[in-house]
Amino acid sequence: MHLAQELVAYVDRLATLPDVYLKVRSALDDPDVSIAEVADVIATDPSLTAALLRLANSAFYGYARKIESIQRAVSLIGLEQVHDLVLATSVTAMFSGIRPQRMDMARFWRDSVRRGMLAREVARTLRGVSPERLFVSGLLADAGHLVMYVAVPDLMALVLDTPPGDGDTLPDVERRIIGCDFAEVGAALTAKWQLPVTFGVLIGAQLQPETAGDNAPAAALLNLVSAVATQAGDGSDYEYPLHHRSEALAGITRDEVEAVLPSVEAQMEMMMAVLANA
């Protein structure tokens, strides 16, 4: 049986985020940092610069005028949001070179983008929830599976080949066979990356959102969005386990989340293209 932290330690390729992200995060940790200083750090990486400008000029933000400089983009988008978008583009680049056996990476990435975009759009309708933070949390919500497929491929194959019992969910089977579930592993990965604590709390509590304390509404939203996005995807052997209190904790119904899905699907190709070139 394995602990989530053990699985993360096995995966060297996912152990460290790119230097440019670490430099951006270090700059943002300085309370006196200026927009120009953050823009200068981002500008040292041409691919990141291009990716952020594509995002800033996409329908994702919908600004009326074209944004032609990183400093202008940072000014308009905001420092915390820029951090989260730099993180999203950095993670995209890391995931692109990984091809674990028995994992459909094209489907994994499409499902991740759908979940992130849906989380962001729903979060925009609620108070006290950061849309960009939910976007990245949705993008990373299933990253634990990526670690598990790379670290223990034989055990994951056994999970996939095990017929679900009465009332079984995918995390139930994972805990029984591997010793931990994908949410635990995803949270351990964010800790390994030393991301802001909120990401680990949301991803780790997505299956039991009431355990997230003050972040319970956001964790419940992630649970609700993940259930809707999984159902809208290309299919899975298991249904994503919707928690019975997610609607009440998040303050929104599943029907209301599903109503947002068509607008997300309409923008999927745009976002896939933007992130693919990150």
Strands, helices and their partners?
Layout: H1 4-10, H2 19-28, H3 35-43, H4 46-56, H5 70-77, H6 79-95, H7 105-123, H8 131-140, H9 143-151, H10 153-161, H11 170-177, H12 182-192, H13 197-204, H14 216-232, H15 246-250, H16 254-276
Helix pairs in contact: 1-12, 2-3, 2-6, 3-5, 6-8, 7-8, 7-14, 7-16, 8-13, 9-10, 9-12, 10-11, 12-13, 14-16
How would you summarize this macromolecular structure in one to three sentences?
65% of the residues lie in helices and 0% in strands. With 278 residues, it is an all-alpha fold. The chain has a domain of 190 residues: Hypothetical protein af1432 (Orthogonal Bundle), CATH 1.10.3210.
Please characterize this protein's 3D structure.
The protein is mainly alpha-helical. The chain has a domain at 4-15 and 99-276: Hypothetical protein af1432 (Orthogonal Bundle), CATH 1.10.3210. Helices cover 65% and strands 0% of the residues. The chain contains 16 helices and no strands. It has helices at 4-10, 19-28, 35-43, 46-56, 70-77, 79-95, 105-123, 131-140, 143-151, 153-161, 170-177, 182-192, 197-204, 216-232, 246-250, 254-276. Helix 12 packs antiparallel against helix 13. The radius of gyration is 18 Å and the shape is globular. 44% of the residues are buried.
